[in-house]
């Protein structure tokens, strides 16, 4: 951490003057500097060719530090993954902070370091951004907005319109870890081992699959807020297809399942930050699954269901004991401030 003559963020650090420049010079520009960001212009000059994806997201997680990560890497990974779900290769990010006065500089530094490492893992550059400071009581320590751009992979044909009857639904790993990592901290739950967020960048994993299987991957999506259930229901409703999914095939860590049970939460509706769902052609689903399981981010991947003609616009879950129920979208806010 750099030596500074202040320990906490004050309103003056958002003034655009000397204090702002001290904060940015000793943090953002030193850690995240590159040829584009170092121009310090009002915007960034980028070289983009061909079809390009663009995404933006805001992150309000509380607490800002949690087992397995913090709000900084969550912000980078979230936008990188949104681009990856488009079949894009993320290249550039914007990074904007809204800081509540009183935030310890030490915490801000730790978040910047996490952002740097997350960018390096994903292979993206921060090229522009903004910093604002609000009065104490008008924020919650730190809010972050990130936007990202990247070219679409030439073999990617991602879109809900590509879903076909018989498509297999693959999830890349254990569900509900992120939401329960946040909740375990808030509720003071203790387990034999710590529940950790699954936040990570997925772009390298996804691009590897697209490179090998191309048009057999029909749709990609990440089940963040609202969880797996909400994402699948949204797709079923918008496309008109039916889906059957099977509880026995849903991968979940035992301690995460126990935490969900203790808190009365359905893991299907709990947020994830390091997972994706893929709709894959029936003929290549087993091969896609086998390839994904070779990847660190896909070791626990499973085929959890399929697209069917029956019950259009409905997602039906078959329980472990053979019962069936309709899966709907999350009706309200199940977990406050998880991403």
Taken in chain order, the helices and strands follow as HEEEHEHEEEHHEHEHEHEEE
* Domain count: 2
Question: What average pLDDT do the residues reach?
Answer: 92
CATH arch. level architecture of the largest domain: Alpha-Beta Complex
Computed over alpha carbons, the radius of gyration is 21 Å
Helical stretch tally: 8
CATH topology of the largest domain: Phosphoribosyl-aminoimidazole Synthetase, Chain A, domain 2
Amount of helix: 25-40%
CATH class placement of the largest domain: Alpha Beta
Shape from CA axes? Answer: globular
Can you describe this structure in just a few lines?
Belongs to the HypE family. The strands form 3 sheets. A 7-stranded mixed beta sheet has the order 8-10-7-11-9-12-13, sandwiched between helices. Strands 1-6-4-5 form a 4-stranded mixed beta sheet, with helices on one face. A two-stranded antiparallel sheet has the order 2-3. By secondary structure, the protein is α+β, with helices and mostly antiparallel strands.
What layout of secondary structure does this protein have?
Elements: H1 18-32, E1 52-59, E2 65-66, E3 69-70, H2 71-84, E4 92-100, H3 105-122, E5 125-134, E6 142-151, E7 168-171, H4 177-187, H5 203-213, E8 217-221, H6 227-239, E9 242-246, H7 254-263, E10 277-280, H8 285-292, E11 302-308, E12 315-318, E13 324-327
Parallel strand pairs: 4-5, 9-12
Antiparallel strand pairs: 1-6, 2-3, 4-6, 7-10, 7-11, 8-10, 9-11, 12-13
